[in-house]
């Protein structure tokens, strides 16, 4: 494929995925097949995708910061836990096939998102947030296992993070996105390091994809602050259903 087409294709898809990942999660179900279509094997596509994930979340954090939203201490606790898990997951991704796991995951994702939409929201009042004690311990444990999954395949990781932060820590969905962006930035460093060590990264495709993804992440992070929780819930519902179908049938 001519370079100009590669640039246009990767940048356009990257831009859309940057928006999806910032508002909900699951954009990797688009980028991973795209990278494979361009000729990369599964492991290299998985590793290459991490370059864009890393830079996109860096850009998203800059967008949130420009609107006055900052990640607190909770992000660092959860980031370290998920970082440890991501190294384990990435090592598994080098060797293990995931067809059966994908079908189980499809069912789990549908069940947990139904729970989240039935459960009353904690609202945006910071007095309802639960950032210490048992909720902190629970979310740290959950994020370790989310890190394992994220290091393994990535697709849908943001949705799992949002479910935990909403249900356990009672964060608003806008603030959840800020925390998610920093945690994903931290744990992606671990996964990317593993793929780099094993030579499973294509820098040309990764950087082209990252350009569009970073722009989409920056713009949507600022936009989501203006639009609030409602639009983010809509994105979450759509992406969970799409991911579940993808995991089950493909």
Keywords:
250 residues; mainly alpha; 10 helices; globular
Kindly describe this structure:
This protein has 250 residues and is mainly alpha-helical. It is built from ten helices and no strands. The two termini are 25 Å apart.
User: Termini distance?
Assistant: 25 Å
Q: What gyration radius follows from the Cα positions, in whole Å?
A: 17 Å
Oligomeric grouping of the chains = single chain
Low-confidence stretches: 120-125
Secondary-structure map with pairings?
Layout: H1 3-23, H2 28-37, H3 42-66, H4 73-95, H5 99-118, H6 133-152, H7 157-167, H8 173-197, H9 203-227, H10 229-249
Q: What's the quick description here?
A:
The chain is 80% helix and 0% strand. By secondary structure, the protein is an all-alpha fold.
